[in-house]
Amino acid sequence: MSTATSDNVLHAVAGAGGGVLSMVLTYPLITLSTRSQVESKRARSSVPDAIRRIIQREGISGLYAGLDTAVFGISVTNFVYYYWYEWSRAAFEGAATRSGRSRTKLTTLEAMAAGAFAGSATVLITNPIWVVNTRMTARKRTPLLDRSLPSGGLPTLQNPSGVTLAKPKAPTTIGTIRDLFNEGGLRAFFAGVIPALVLVANPILQYTIFEQLKNMLERRRKRSVTPQDAFVLGALGKLVATALTYPYITVKARMHMAEKGKRIGLAAGLRKIVKEEGWSGLYNGIGPKLVQSVFTAAFLFAFKDALFAFTQTALANRRAQLKLKAK
């Protein structure tokens, strides 16, 4: 394996690991944001009320609904994205070197092109995972009849029907995949792929801002950025990117939740939300989403840089040991 390919894989693995760690730390905020995005205007509530309602109905685990698919999704998403982003970046830097350009660092346009290529490939590969995750995170759990208690209990003021319901059952990954396939076949797994491709602009903006700020900081300090620097720069990049692209995130979530026969296109989805809920409907759940996105991106960049440096050092030490043994 060549050094360039090895570095691409290292970046991809570090990105996947950083993504998983940051996802686990901020997942309750993702749950709150996703549920707000798919709720109608009438059902909207404050963040504390939403947390209280989820815990009362589903327990603490309700805040982590769909975490298994999210962890799998973010690891695949980040691995694919970082591999192709680093591949694209290396190609641009190689071209700059061959052309005799004084600076091989990516220009803004080159960073955006690399992000667009990596982001588009990532969306097409991972969209089915995120459709399943949105369904598991947002769909209400169905209360079940408690079979452990005798049926036909006496009605009370609190329970006029006399039927005792057990704690709602969480949807399983396999069950959600089966339901999606029954609803619309393979096509159902690519619901929302158009707004997702539009949302490639989000990581493009995020990584372009991050790269340019990073280059600026490294030129000023004449050294590589630290994980602490990456934390702050990653947070700034994600804050701007999410604020600009949030309406498309809302439409994508609605399209993931739409059942067969009720699916509509991107433009129609935007018009429908504005007509029924006003412009504010496009920004349902933006509070938790901004907090989650900023912290996720900040942790991701900090963890990724630390994991990359650790893995690179560990591999270099391993190679040195193998050379010594060979002698």
Regions with pLDDT < 50 over 5+ consecutive residues?
140-165
Shape: globular
The value of Rg in angstroms is 23 Å
Question: How large is the share of residues in beta strands?
Answer: under 5%
Order of helices and strands: HHHHEEHHHHHH
Number of strands: 2
Number of helices: 10
The span between the termini is: 22 Å
In words, what does this structure look like?
Strands 1-2 form a two-stranded antiparallel ribbon. Helix 4 crosses helix 5 and helix 8 packs across helix 9. The chain contains ten helices and two strands; from the N terminus they run H-H-H-H-E-E-H-H-H-H-H-H. The longest helix is centred in the last third of the chain and has 41 residues. The radius of gyration is 23 Å and the shape is globular. About 8% of the residues have low confidence. With 327 residues, it is mainly alpha-helical.
Quick synopsis:
This protein is mainly α.
Tell me the layout of helices and strands.
Blueprint: H1 3-38, H2 47-58, H3 67-98, H4 108-138, E1 142-145, E2 165-169, H5 173-184, H6 193-198, H7 201-221, H8 227-257, H9 266-277, H10 286-326
Helix pairs in contact: 1-3, 1-10, 3-4, 4-5, 4-7, 7-8, 8-9, 8-10
List keywords for this structure.
327 residues; mainly alpha; 10 helices; 3% strand; globular; membrane
